[in-house]
Amino acid sequence: MIVLATQMWEDYELLDSGGKEKLERFGQYVIVRPDPRAIWKKTLGETEWKKADAVFIQTADSEEWKFRSSPPTPWEIRWESIKFALRTTDFRHVGVFPEQAVNWQWIHQLMSNVQCSMFDEKPCRILNLFAYTGGATMAAAIAGAQVTHVDSSRPAMMWASENAKLSDIPKDHIRWIQDDVLKFVKREIRREVKYDGIIMDPPRFGRGASGEVWKLEDDLPNLLEHTRQILSATPLFWLINAYTADLSSIALGNLLADMVKDLGGTTESGELGIKESSGGRILPAGIFARWKKD
């Protein structure tokens, strides 16, 4: 099994973790959030943890942020040439998943200096499903791809669009689609649209734009079967991320391998994580499976 661990960069750092919490720096602001996977002891003392600008408090009855020093809304961070507008939300997230930086780098490297068509110089077509605030979308777009960004949440779509504008990505590099993911894929099948790369970050549970219910273990295999039909004849890659203890990276890898067994290439799967700057430990942060052409 492979472990892909994001290292700190200028605008992000996992300072410490433990006691089912994590201490992170986003730009100049430090926050504390719950993380049930951090079952070990903290490395830094409580004095350091208490310096945090914001703490997400979770009890049986409520969830809320407590601020020592409120960050502006939004505040910005940068990864490479990509900018993110961050906000504290009611569901503990701030608008970026730092563990995905290893995948952004992988996508960008695959997309750089690639010609997807043997007959012309049209840009590679990439599809990002459950695309949230657009980190992977922007990583592909800045490498020259034409990206279709699909999410059922209007607030997430607006947030991603804001990030793309902050990052000075040309408007014609990204097509924004607010829709249920499976409905969109079926529509693309009927239209005979093809994509050279697929990115998907499906939630454990969710609802589509019209109230469609999504359950990862039940619905992912069917989504993959349909998505396979819109993969081009000479695809570059397929990346799947998941955030659930109910599905192993081995199972995710097996699912993806079934879809691409006739394409050759290389399939790998494993865990995503973030490396602490204090104790050097890796905080687990989800699983992945990915395929790329040889």
Could you describe the 3D structure shown?
The chain starts with a strand and ends with a strand. With 294 residues, it is of the alpha/beta class. The protein is built from 7 helices and 17 strands. The strands form 4 sheets. An 8-stranded mixed sheet has the order 1-16-17-15-12-9-10-11. The protein has 2 domains: 2-79, Sandwich (Immunoglobulin-like); 94-292, Vaccinia Virus protein VP39 (Rossmann fold, 3-Layer(aba) Sandwich). The protein has helices spanning 46-49, 101-111, 135-141, 154-166, 181-191, 216-228, 249-260, and strands at 2-6, 12-18, 21-26, 29-34, 54-58, 63-67, 75-79, 82-86, 125-129, 146-151, 174-178, 197-200, 205-207, 213-215, 237-242, 266-275, 282-292. α2 packs parallel to α3 (135-141) and α6 runs parallel beside α7 (249-260).
State the fourth-level CATH superfamily of the largest domain.
Vaccinia Virus protein VP39
Number of helices: 7
**Mean pLDDT score, rounded?**
93
Enter the CATH topology name of the largest domain.
Rossmann fold
Structural class: alpha/beta
The portion of residues forming beta strands comes to 25-35%
Q: Architecture of the largest domain, CATH level 2?
A: 3-Layer(aba) Sandwich
GO molecular function: methyltransferase activity
Keywords: Methyltransferase, S-adenosyl-L-methionine, Transferase
Protein name: S-adenosylmethionine-dependent methyltransferase domain-containing protein
Pfam families: Methyltrans_SAM
